[in-house]
Fold each of these.
Amino acid sequence: MDFTCRQQPKGVCAVRGDSQKVFREGKFRKPKMSRRARKDTLAFIGFTAPNFILLGVFVFWPIVYSLFLSFFKWNMIAPKKTFIGVDNYVSLFNDPVFWQITRNTLSLAVFTVLFKLGIALSLSIQLNRKPKGGSLYRAIIFSPTFTTSVAVAMVWTWIFEPTYGLFRFLFRAVGVTSPDWIHNVHWALPAVIIVLVWSGIGYDMVLFLAGLKNIPQDIYDAALVDGVTPWQNFIHITFPLLSPTTFFLTVTSFIGALKAFDIISIMTDGGPLNSSNVYVLYLYQNAFQWFKTGYASALALILFLLIMVVTLVQNRLSRRWVHY
Amino acid sequence: MVEIHRKRSPRWYLGRAGSHLILLLASLFIGIPFLWMVTTSIKSPAEVAIFPPIWWPETIRWDNFAKAWSLAPFGRFYINSIITATTGVFLEVSIAALSAYAFARIRFKYRDIMFLVMLAAMMIPSQVALIPNYVVLKHLKWINTYQGIVIPHVSSVFGAFLLRQYFLSVPAALYDAAELDGLGHFKTMVYIALPLARPVLGTLVLYLFLAKWNSYLWPLIVTNTQNMRTLPVGLAMVRTAEYAIGPEHLMAASLFVLVPPLIVYFLAQKQLIEGIAAGAVKG
């Protein structure tokens, strides 16, 4: 470790071109670890062991085991697993529901991210102008961030209720007929998106606001001297300088939306006719309602790969696109 | 710096009014579902089934809460949620602190590699691990137990990363002084590093508590009897129960679940929001 040749007193090291080794007891040997270094090594292992054991068993091992299970037919209860090769993947790609949930998941992710970020950005710009009562607005808009998703899904189900629901009332007030949101194949997914946007705006807004505060005021002052319009201000100063935040939020929100489960499972349970079904829900149904363990494992692995690709693309692109 | 004088023209006032209008609309959009939940929970069955809906009931029906409480063993759900959330937070924060201290202060040959391995775990979503974790728990005979709910989710990457940053920012002289005084690594962590990290530790504890209190998917999978269910799972089960229950009872029951995190939020609102803004909390 720290005992390389250079640090030794003269004469301890022989000239042998191998500075790692130390002349000791008549032979060239690896340097002995000092008592301190040995103590540190033990301490390090002891300190990190709980975390690494848990990560190994509950995070890394599952990827290996999922891959293994995805080649088997198994109902999770029977002692015997039947090897079926890539059959799970074949039937997955021939499963129309798989393609439907893929489409649903991606459009859910895209629209949630677009609306959530768009609204959050415009709100953060208003808040950054420091209106009176700004911290109250901020507290209210942020409040869904840490609320229980199951309870949130309950109240939204009641709001979307076709006969006595609040949405029917609001739509009638502006002279439009409200669809039967969660029982209609075309409106179930949009209903879910509305709720996801509702619960996510606050978090994105707070991060945007932190990003806005980091833009030096001098730039705006200089622009003011040059007589630029507010719109030019936004396009040429705010938006480019905010791009690290925007990029970070786009990627994390996209990945978050790929993992959506709670609200959809309570509100629509993927229905009607799988029109609002998504990856994690379909995975849950296959694994824990229909006990198609192998099939669900294949699904889990595809979700994992999808998320990894998004993360890697993020790493690549962030170097090119983002202005720091 | 030159202070540029901004004139308060009519246009300035218009812009201000616009800001307030946009923020007010957003606050209504966010706030009305909460309000609607509360007012529905105190209505009579007749007042719930009216169109157009009424905003406030004629008489407040507090007995809806008593009825909702009797729909399921909510007391038991509370105990389960409190036990699993608090032990989970305690374990996760301890594990995070130990790892963070090791990565920040203890020399080890493979430290950097291990750090990368730990960060790689962040890429693996817990949803992917549902089946393998269930199988592991079945072998451990931990299905439908508290440790089954808690243990798979107390490993820490983000918390460890965050605390490590904080430990690194503490002046090295403090650690050296502790070492001269003969403090070992564990004591240095407990008496020097952690007390200095108190602000960030507090935010981490709050955030983890809320996340664990609200979690649904894993407790849903790993519990199979009513007396082991946590509040969110219990609430979801109430809705799918055979007997018909009115929206007023469902909203009352939802409030049982929602009130504790809302109280925590409003008490620690500033700390949580500023923690997020400072990058202290992951969404």
Amino acid sequence: MVNTLVFYCVAAFTVAAAGVTAFSHNIIRSAFALLGALIGVAGLFGMMGADFLAVVQMMVYVGGVMVLVLFAVMLTHRIRDITISNQSMNPGTAAVIAGSMLGLLLFGIWRGIPGGTQPGYESAASLIGENLLSAYLPVFLLAAILLFAVMVAAVVIARHRPHPKGVGSNQGGEEQA
Amino acid sequence: MTVQSVLSVAAILFSLGLYCVLTRKNAVSVLMGVELILNAANLNFVAFSSFTGTIGAPEVAGRVFAVMIIVLAAAEAAVALAIILAIFRRMGTVEVDNLNELRE
């Protein structure tokens, strides 16, 4: 009973935060609402017994990705136009597409899936660890290689390079081949 | 708390993310919509993992998939934001309907 009540509170918080992310006209507000939605999803993970995933979600998304997003927002915006910084286009068409998608999904979920109740709280952290290092070892190693490539690529792409047409802007930096 | 209720939350998150991706002019906002969609997918994986296993032995494949999706989302966000920063430095804007050429 209490479990259900807490679930509905967390779900409502998550959906409300996602709604602010999708509909706010202020991009800073949108970014912080995304933070709330990610925390809400971490809460839902915890309520479903996926405690390891909840911690990973908090560390990677809330700690890492959100900082990146906020940096990007603040580095690519002029603060004077912040109240209209998050403009939308074609809201009607997009609402029709997203709304019909939602209707289809909800219809399928409530008609096509046999109802199930949760088999109780369980911590699968040790199971995840064992599987990552045995059955899913190739995927694990591929993810490691991908993360290394991404780290190098992000630094190379975001590095400040002098503008090729700029006047006197090529001091202290060699042009990349 | 049934599997349908969790999946419904995921469906709503997905639709809001889709709306965000379809309407936003700002590239960073489009990326936020993509993050919402990835979170909805993750929620589905964890829901099916939790609600189809037995006590003490959940379907661990769903959890592993979710971990991998989180890794991919972090990688995608890092590279995409680096690209957005580079575009802003070059073109002076990150509005997706103004970005229609690969070089100025």
